[in-house]
Hints:
The protein is α/β, with parallel strands linked by helices. It contains 6 helices and 6 strands.
Amino acid sequence: MSATLLDPQTALVVIDLQKGIAALPVVHSMANVVKHASELAGAFRRHALPVVLVNVAGGAPGRTEQAPPSLPSSADWTELLPELNPQAQDHRVTKRTWGAFTGTGLEAYLKTAGVTQIVLAGVATSIGVESTARCAHELGFHVTFAIDAMTDRSEEAHSNSVARIFPRLGESGSTKEIIALLDQRHV
Length: 187
């Protein structure tokens, strides 16, 4: 289903577009993902809507069958990509789990701002984006996915999220479609 509506108070949430993650191999062009996420951020800022920039700086401590990749310790690994043009008014979240809500105060920030819907972009589609979307949906937020502003390390995982999971959590659209919905609302 294509994105049909954006609530009056919608926030953009960009997941893990940071220097360390951007250097990892992915299935879709990271340059295009970042370009689209940057276009969305610019549009949200033009319409005075919240932009949330999320980075990851650790992992949950639980045991798993598949060991999570260890995070490199370079000083700039967690730095947001400059192409996002981070602004002082952007809300920043550093997470230590897959999703952006757990232990970060993101829910309280969004609810205080009157946000009822989020648009999601970033990496990885099947991990950070999907985990954040699942929690947002459970918390009662409407969710829209900017499909061309996300990618994954696995095509199979990306496709599964887009085709099977996301339609159960919200609506999907392209960056162009989402920006057109924003512009229509603010004419």
